[in-house]
Amino acid sequence: MSFELAMLAASCVLCLVQIIVSSHAASLQRGYRWTASSRDAEVPPLTGVAGRLERALRNFLETFPVFVAAVFLVRVLGRESALSEWGAGLYFLARLIFLLLYAAGVPLLRSLVWNVAFVGIVLLLLASVWHV
């Protein structure tokens, strides 16, 4: 398995972890009866850690499809290189750190780390068109 695909697999695991952690945090705040309900009634937004975990998950889900596409482009085109490895590694590591910072409520550094993940995707896309 290439490094890029390994980072994709690791990012899939990170996604599942975020879904589980976010849903349990929401259940702790709203109660497991709410979790088991049809959720038809309006509820106030989640607050504190539960709210931050929910927003971190939504943020992950915004960038993850582009990361997946970029990894597949690199793989299908046979453009694996140091550039694509750096891109995939930066994305995964930055997304992991982003989750921890967001959950902890760290504002500015969290945004800087988000940019690192974005750069990771850009590096993958560059690798797909520019073979080094």
Jot down its keywords:
132 residues; mainly alpha; Four Helix Bundle (Hemerythrin (Met), subunit A); 5 helices; elongated
Helix-strand sequence: HHHHH
Number of domains: 1
Distance between the termini: 20 Å
Class from helix and strand fractions: mainly alpha
Radius of gyration: 17 Å
Unreliable segments of 5+ consecutive residues? none
Question: Tell me, what is the CATH class?
Answer: Mainly Alpha
CATH fold naming? Four Helix Bundle (Hemerythrin (Met), subunit A)
What is the name of the CATH superfamily?
A: Membrane associated eicosanoid/glutathione metabolism-like domain
Task: Count the beta strands.
Answer: 0
Brief synopsis:
The protein is mainly α and 132 residues long.
